[in-house]
Description:
By secondary structure, this protein is an alpha/beta fold.
Amino acid sequence: xxxxxxxxxxxxxxxxxxxxxxxxxxxxxxxxxxxxxxxxxxxxxxxxxxxxxxxxxxxxxxxxxxxxxxxxxxxxxxxxxxxxxxxxxxxxxxxxxxxxxxxxxxxxxxxxxxxxxxxxxxxxxxxxxxxxxxxxxxxxxxxxxxxxxxxxxxxxxxxxxxxxxxxxxxxxxxxxxxxxxxxxxxxxxxxxxxxxxxxxxxxxxxxxxxxxxxxxxxxxxxxxxxxxxxxxxxxxxxxxxxxxxxxxxxxxxxxxxx
Length: 258
């Protein structure tokens, strides 16, 4: 059974499924779709073109699907999508897409902590943790199971590979490949996310293959192209190594340095 606080302003045109809680002074605009078992906290604003999955929790003061901060945007219809069971903590700001991609997308089972900013056209995968005060610029791609430490900043059009960790206070102005940890300003390669990989069930052999991949890339003395050729020759049959090489090939900003 749903409950909407009497001070909340909910458009009759919005589509709300069952078992939704809407707190005091929250605002939900016309073209909004919210799934089952969601909670919308006090003073949160859900703007037009938000598409929110099931079991999503949005805390007080969050701003969801507001206009992109892009001077070229002409106010057409674009979307902000949030996957099932994601939590958006207080005062986060999530902007919808522009016509470049049509949407900003946040995956399932993510945690976006207080004061997080996700700009237009970002694509965030499943099971990500974005810590307090992280600033994510437009067109950023973040793959699954990424953790970004507090107050970090991600440069526009940047890419963050799966199962990686970006250290708190970092400036990721280059692409962060999968499975690694970064730290510093600007962000630098600091080794593998070994604890995270073990927690997620990676085998010793898989971790060893990933470790050797990054040894060849960062520490062998080979130039990047020669290192990638050596990795393919030596380890190219391993699926996780293949995913690293695929990420390297699609990198547009270059990879973080050691």
